[in-house]
Amino acid sequence: NAGVTQTPKFQVLKTGQSMTLQCAQDMNHEYMSWYRQDPGMGLRLIHYSVGAGITDQGEVPNGYNVSRSTTEDFPLRLLSAAPSQTSVYFCASSHPGRDYGYEQFFGPGTRLTVL
Amino acid sequence: GENVEQHPSTLSVQEGDSAVIKCTYSDSASNYFPWYKQELGKRPQLIIDIRSNVGEKKDQRIAVTLNKTAKHFSLHITETQPEDSAVYFCAASYSGYSTLTFGKGTMLLVSP
Prior knowledge:
The complex is a heterodimer of chains A (115) and B (112). Chain A is an all-beta fold and 115 residues long. Chain A has strands at residues 4-7, 10-13, 19-25, 31-37, 43-51, 54-57, 64-66, 76-78, 87-94, 105-106, 110-114. Chain A is 0% helix and 49% strand. In chain A, strand 4 (31-37) and strand 5 (43-51) form a beta hairpin. Chain B has strands spanning 4-7, 10-14, 19-25, 30-38, 45-51, 56-59, 62-67, 72-77, 86-94, 101-102, 106-111. In chain B, the strands form 2 sheets. In chain B, strands 2, 4, 5, 9, 10 and 11 form a 6-stranded mixed beta sheet that branches. Chain B has a 5-stranded antiparallel beta sheet with strand order 1-3-8-7-6, with no helix packed on it.
């Protein structure tokens, strides 16, 4: 199993450009999430999905869109990149927990710089 | 929503010493508390987790304690080694919920 994969590893954008960060998992996990990590801020939730066709907003959703057409893939779209979106982006997946949460498995991350 | 506070932000210890990192959470409905270790340039990786039906869990040199009444939980690392140097994150979530709320992290430096 490859686990959770993300592409690209690095990306530089100019302000106003759009792009899609790719995330895929081969563990048949129902839950997938996107987090951004900024120095001194921990990981903050952008969007998440509890299954194909179902998405919801997290703590910092502005400027990002997601969709989930398959169980395996959960792309994150930046509509019009801004310098404030310079960050490291992590995708994660997990099994659903009926009574308790379960371990989230993280992808290797995408380091995005917006000039 | 849930809020997780983590202290200290940095922690320096000598090899062989113990290290303790503390977190508090705000939502009494939270019942799952994982700890992640993140080495420089790498992804966060789970090192230990605890559910609210237990008060303590150990795995070799690592232990986590949970006080539901006070809404705080702690990570204890004994006999620290230089390879324990990393950023550690605590997190919280609740029943069946798919996402985690993270603390801001603690940079642990273990000096030989």
